[in-house]
Amino acid sequence: MHSGERKVGNGSSGAIAHRLAAKQQEISVTEFFEKNKHILGFDSRSKSLIMGIKEATDNALDACEEADIPPEITVTLERMEDEVFCICVEDNGPGIVHKMMPNVFGRLLYGSRFHALRQSRGQQGIGISATVMYGNITTGRPARIMSKIEGDDAVSWRMDIFIDTKTNRPIVTNDEAFVWEGKDHGTSIRYYIKGRYITGKQSVFEYLKNTAIVNPHAMITYRDPDGKTFVFERATETMPPKSKEIKPHPEGMEIGDLQKYASATQQKTVRAFLKNDFSRITDRIADEILSRAGVSGEGKPPKLTREDCKGIIDAIAAVKIMAPPTDCLSPIGETLIKKGLMHVLEGLRPDYYATPVTRAPKAANGNPFVVEAGIVYGGDIPSDGPVAILRFANRVPLLYQQGACAITKAVESVDWRRYGLEQRGGRGIPYGPAIILVHIASTKVPFTSEGKEAVANLPEIQNEICLALRLCARNLKGHLNKMERKSKTEAKFRIVRELLPDMAGKVSEMLDRPRPDLTGTISKIMNVVWIDSRVKKEGKKKVSVLYTVYNYTTQERTLRLHAKLPKECVNLSLFTDDRFLDMNDEGKVSWEISSLPPSRTAEISFELSGELADTFSPEDVYVSGINPIIVMGAEGLPGDWGIKGLEILETDTDIEEEEQTEDTEEAEDLGDE
Amino acid sequence: MHSGERKVGNGSSGAIAHRLAAKQQEISVTEFFEKNKHILGFDSRSKSLIMGIKEATDNALDACEEADIPPEITVTLERMEDEVFCICVEDNGPGIVHKMMPNVFGRLLYGSRFHALRQSRGQQGIGISATVMYGNITTGRPARIMSKIEGDDAVSWRMDIFIDTKTNRPIVTNDEAFVWEGKDHGTSIRYYIKGRYITGKQSVFEYLKNTAIVNPHAMITYRDPDGKTFVFERATETMPPKSKEIKPHPEGMEIGDLQKYASATQQKTVRAFLKNDFSRITDRIADEILSRAGVSGEGKPPKLTREDCKGIIDAIAAVKIMAPPTDCLSPIGETLIKKGLMHVLEGLRPDYYATPVTRAPKAANGNPFVVEAGIVYGGDIPSDGPVAILRFANRVPLLYQQGACAITKAVESVDWRRYGLEQRGGRGIPYGPAIILVHIASTKVPFTSEGKEAVANLPEIQNEICLALRLCARNLKGHLNKMERKSKTEAKFRIVRELLPDMAGKVSEMLDRPRPDLTGTISKIMNVVWIDSRVKKEGKKKVSVLYTVYNYTTQERTLRLHAKLPKECVNLSLFTDDRFLDMNDEGKVSWEISSLPPSRTAEISFELSGELADTFSPEDVYVSGINPIIVMGAEGLPGDWGIKGLEILETDTDIEEEEQTEDTEEAEDLGDE
């Protein structure tokens, strides 16, 4: 070891230790975030402007949903100077109690949702007050808050708020009651902020449009700096199922968490504590945990030692406990995934919408989460660039930090070459005519920073995203295979149907003999029932579908045809066909074609109208009541319609085994390189 | 506007507002970070282990440097259970005063460097206490701190520390004086932490190795879980120049910042405030700012209104103010960049080390920063994958979150096709046999999160990285062009030198005439002085260099040869050659070859030994004293050796104009997509 070569500066190292000690001091959380504005998302002027609108809009949506009020939100953006804007966001939420207004808007780390395990957009009590702070700092002006609560008291309140960064406390410079004409209840926040107004993918308009897509129960009005007004109308009158608050799930809990819960619990015994303070712990499970841990259930929870807690944690890992309840989550569902994809397409017409996947809920660090994914492919989606990735978390579109996001890392870690997309070396963002959408809903989305722009790379979450993507991709691959088979079969059939009569004609001409009728011969050669499916765009939101069934066999045939239609797009044309049998709640439709003679065709046609009409893939058609071996152009109906198309073919284990090289461990490490 | 369709939940919306108000509460910063562990870098077990070591090592290095003590750091990692480790990091720093120990290690947002504008690894007062907290939570055990300060008092202190997450205050469970045998001064921290031990690119070993490379003044000893000891010896006895604390630079300051400074200043007048509290504001500049802003210099700073502050901020933007002082920064420099690159190569031998670039300091949000970049190319670096990117910030290697980092985004935004690397569409990480290193030194590196893994995408910083990369890449391109020209010229010469005599031989044979001597003819045809440069690896750290000068002209020639050698690798073999003229401090060497007759050759050979020997590119050779037009294989000496090779060829403006399509604005937006 070296040891002697110390160079002494001004003072011995002992003096330095004392000098350093004198400099030690507390840092307020506001000072911290002021100095680290980029962690809040304020790292460029254009992003700051979006953040300003996003935080207020998230808050407005959360407030309305919490009060079961269909949200009506008006966002107004005014340009004051070249790079100074006034943002005003008004909602019809329940309003904020007068005395809480200063803390909610003027103090960081202050809020109502931090300790609650339920899905909401805002959680940390930072976003809106950080935005107020950023406005204060960049323009020197306060935020003006107006709020009205429903009730006897017709008075509304308005106040101007600064944040004191030294103390993290609000400074209210103006506080007055007023009459808010025509307003029953709601909140409005107006602040001035430095920002840059840009157009394109990361614009305010795009952010609000994407927000409207995944929040179809909200009506959002946007007045842009040029005075133009855009109204994103409500697409449904139904509020999303209200997410419930749950107790923490024991899985993934750390010793320290358990110690903290144990010292704070109201429960008198350890058994009661385990059973009542956590979700999915029954009496039986509590007993199993206690006996494995060798801990008495009758002791007082605060008396649990570190060793007791460790024992309990180890026992929890060993005991099988039900997955967390899911009613705390609100996935967006198949229809909204398709609509989200359709909106980005902006009129482009893809070939195929892969069946969107909504995974079963899982837990990460005790927080339940659900992953959803969708893919569109082909048509006139540009094929020469990397695929576009649309990211959503708790119904909020994520516009920035794509590279940092677990969603992107999951996309990059899938070997897309197996699923028909181009990808150099089987890693990285694939190339081709596709758009991928992923939504994560959770009681706690682990964002990489307070700007809430990217999901952190937790192994459990990344794994679920990968599985959702692979399921979706398999569906796509199945379609691509089907299309390839179809085009090959069609080519063969064309030869038989066209060339054979042609040849026969030529031969009979040469021999000067009458042209023979080959219909029977062709049927004998082919010996299939051929189902041709076509879709034709009739207008902006209208398509017509035609199934033609050719009986190229030598017998009369009876069969049923099945397809899953976007239910909301179905119109009268479907039901007037007397071969129509029934349609269930999910839009699964059956027709019966009975006694189709040899060499004859039957046609089923109907129209679909409405936004989702475009997402229908007629190739996904199934047959029953006939041996599927002699059917070309449709698959045999898999067992029962009650089972979803994909799940019956692919279990997680299949998917996981298929790509064993990409297990969680590797994904975690590689994803982060 | 819709308005009627409110569905009332349990209670009117007014009741809900009151219910929500009751839930509003303060969140402690510790609770916040406990729930958002991933923001601190604790998002996977393998990363958590690295974080545990990194935070303690950063602190140890900072403490030693602050006290001018050449660091001696010992890192011990013991495996307690499969995924539970004990980390111990001991340094020879100045030690920590007894009464400060609890707050430094047991309280978040508490530290000495937060308000100081100078380059240091730790800044926020979060890292080490967050690690203590993570250890507490995952294992239920306290951190044990031991510290000794130099001085009369021979007593050392040791204490066990927990963090109370509810209050963000330390809980000391054990506090005792002891005698630390053989220790003059220093600190040791030992904690238990859940983690996963992995090997490879993101291992503890790699982290410490990379740390040692960019901190050659430190000696780092690592004992791994298998009991193996690795010693990264000190490579230099010289401490890096101590970074100085500076005053804030006025550029990029926001109104709110100015208001805060003005209300806290000790200065009596606004003029004195501007002049004394900011860097680079002289009397003249203060007057210019005040007159432009229309603000009196004699007023009291706390009396400045918002409008005054706005005027001053606008004036600052309009007045030319010197760049921030640079003595607060400590770049790593050319030699360490090359060494860093060499270490990653692990014995691979590249063709070329592009001249590393250290940019002039710039400021972002008032914080000075310097960007440095280096590239190695070719040889046996694998050419079929994306290039490797090595990222450093304030001498700390960044191992995770590459996708989120401004360095990566800058690499992706450069069109590398112009510089000889493969890159689809001119965007994204290029492919090819290259490794890119970037270091950012700043008084405040804007990390995207508290895990300090990625640099946030501030436009000013990304722009500087792009410029550094392009300068480096141009140098690479110059080399590639030179190599291409050389190989073409060589091919032509081979034809002349070999084919011409061959043809003459054949012809004379056919004509049965004596074979003519073509030397003079060849010289006439060629009419060049040809310089051939070769380098041969002689051993692990030894190369021999050979310059051969062919005089293919018809006259006697005298010329000087110049090359820049890695000075520390030069040995006696260089000086024994009597054509050697001189070598300057930077390793620039000259030789003189006098009166070389036509058709004759001269050889200059020498050896280089030492670590950097491999980085020498013999092709970068220059000539003087001869018209460079008749020289092949070397360039004319550009003006004067005093001017660096690249700077004279490329100014920022050239570079910026060259790629005008990639201006800051676009880089900012695209980088974030």
Give a short synopsis of this structure.
Two copies of one chain form a homodimer. By secondary structure, chain A is α+β, with helices and mostly antiparallel strands.
What topology emerges from the helices and strands here?
The structure is a homodimer of 673-residue chains.
Chain A: H1 13-23, E1 25-26, H2 29-35, H3 45-66, E2 72-81, E3 84-90, H4 101-106, E4 110-111, H5 127-139, E5 143-148, E6 156-164, E7 169-178, E8 186-194, H6 204-214, E9 219-223, E10 229-232, H7 255-264, H8 270-277, H9 283-293, H10 306-318, H11 333-345, E11 352-353, E12 357-358, E13 362-364, E14 367-377, E15 388-393, E16 396-398, H12 406-413, E17 434-442, H13 459-511, H14 519-526, E18 528-539, E19 542-552, E20 557-564, H15 572-576, E21 580-583, E22 588-596, E23 601-609, E24 621-624, E25 631-632, E26 635-636, H16 645-649, H17 652-658, H18 664-671
Parallel strand pairs in A: 2-9, 15-17, 18-25, 24-26
Antiparallel strand pairs in A: 2-3, 3-8, 5-6, 5-8, 6-7, 9-10, 11-14, 12-14, 13-14, 14-17, 15-16, 18-19, 19-23, 20-22, 20-24, 21-22
Explain what the structure shows.
The structure is a homodimer of 673-residue chains. In chain A, strand 15 (388-393) and strand 16 (396-398) form a beta hairpin. Helix content of chain A is 33%, strand content 24%. The model of chain A is unreliable at 1-10, 640-651 and 659-673 (pLDDT under 50). Chain A is α+β, with helices and mostly antiparallel strands and 673 residues long. In chain A, the strands form 4 sheets. The first copy, chain A, has an 8-stranded mixed β-sheet with strand order 7-6-5-8-3-2-9-10. In chain A, strands 11, 12, 13, 14, 15, 16 and 17 form a 7-stranded mixed β-sheet that branches. Chain A has a 5-stranded mixed β-sheet with strand order 21-22-20-24-26. Chain A has 4 domains: 29-232, Histidine kinase-like ATPase, C-terminal domain (Heat Shock Protein 90, 2-Layer Sandwich); 255-318, Helicase, Ruva Protein, domain 3, CATH 1.10.8; 333-477 and 653-671, Ribosomal Protein S5, domain 2, CATH 3.30.230.10; 517-637, Immunoglobulin-like (Sandwich), CATH 2.60.40.1170. Chains A and B meet through helix 1, strand 1, helix 2, helix 3 and strand 4 of A and helix 1, strand 1, helix 2, helix 3 and strand 4 of B.
